[in-house]
Amino acid sequence: MSHYMTALAMKQKGLKPAAKIVLYWLADHHNGETNRCFPSLARLADLCEMSKRSVQTQLDHLAEQGLIKKSLAWRDDGQQTSNNYELLLEGVQDLLCGVEKSATLPMQDLLGNNLVSSNQGSQRRARALPDDWVPNDKNIDDAIKRGFSDKEISHEAEQFRNYHHAKGSKFKVWDAAWRTWLGNSRKFAQASTARSRGATDSLLAGFGSYANKYGN
Length: 216
Prior knowledge:
The protein is mainly alpha-helical. 57% of the residues lie in helices and 10% in strands. The protein contains nine helices and five strands; from the N terminus they run ααβααββααβααβα. The strands form two sheets. A three-stranded antiparallel β-sheet has the order 1-3-2, with helices on one face. Strands 4-5 form a two-stranded antiparallel ribbon. Strand 2 (68-74) and strand 3 (80-87) form a beta hairpin. It is elongated and about 55 Å long.
């Protein structure tokens, strides 16, 4: 998994939801050493919850948009295997070149302030959530530690972004707001499950009383 590449994938503008989903899961298979991705079409279809044909259509669209480059791959016996995909996302080359030129270059200079956390929150003024906010590497790690799956993280990130954009929230440290959101999400989910179980138990208890009173 490449958190940086999936974050960059989510930042790409002008894509329809289906195309962005395919791009996200493709970036999730990025190999940092080769700068290539090689998931099978079947695996992408399963992760994206689409048909193979739909995934192929979106891959062709991404290639036409210049966001990926597809190349055929072959086994030693001459049979074709899963295609290789090279990510051509905006910011990828800057990231790769920047890392090669300077291993000490701050990551926020490579990916943007919204993709990395900052420990200088006390020196900042409260600010609105950036329009192109996506969870940074630390945000994703925080979610994983709380037991969130990749799909749940994507869902929570979208809900978090939509909620705070609609509300116009302002915070000094958005990383802390994200952690609070994750904690509340788990609490609400557990409370909802408990209420559901309580309603089921009440229904069964009521049915049992009715059966005892009127049953044969």
